[in-house]
Amino acid sequence: MTYPLLFPRGECSWNTEMEHVEERRTAKRTRVTQLQYYAYRLSQRNGFSILHSSGKLFQQYIVDAYVKTEGSRLHFLRQNQEDLRIELYRGLLDALECRAHNENTRTGKLIILPSSFQGSARHMQKNYQDAMAIVRKFGNPDLFLTFTCNPSCSEILNSMEGV
Fold first, then answer.
1. What domain range is 60 assigned to?
2. Which residues belong to any copy of the Helitron helicase-like domain (predicted)?
3. N or C: where does the chain have the smaller number of CB atoms within 10 Å of the terminal CB?
């Protein structure tokens, strides 16, 4: 039990066998994903919530939930490389093996993160390409800055004396 202060009755956390409670569920998936579980758990409701009132412990719980969810997503991608059509990258794997052979080293297992995985190189490249397509269609962007400050700040008042 990792968080006895948040869950004093020893409530169970997410597991792979957790099913949706709704009886009229029409979706194909009958199991609750880890992301769905934590989204439900972290949503605010009317009334007192020990979870949302626990300060830094709540923040640590959120970080742990994020790390678990991202770890699960990465594990899924690692285990399902064949299903994700990674064989299309065979040329890349051949080049890496050739380089390793020339340097007398061994290659590890190649794991390709798809563009749907936020933060991956492919995701960043896709976002860049989307941004460039917008620039091509609508032209170069304008610079628009906003900021918030205290108008009574001494630095602002000193620089505005002559104005």
1. 1-83
2. 37-160
3. C
Q: Which residue has the tokens 């006895």?
A: 4
How far is Cα 46 from Cα 51, in angstroms, rounded to an integer?
Answer: 13
Is residue 78 assigned to a domain?
Answer: yes
Distance CA 125, CA 123 (A): 5
Q: Count of domains in the chain?
A: 1
Q: What is the pLDDT of residues 22-44, one digit of tens each?
A: 766 566 778 888 888 899 889 98
pTM of the predicted protein model: 0.63
pLDDT digits (tens, 9 = 90+) for 77-113: 888 877 766 666 667 777 878 888 888 887 777 777 8
Flag whether 26 is in a domain: yes
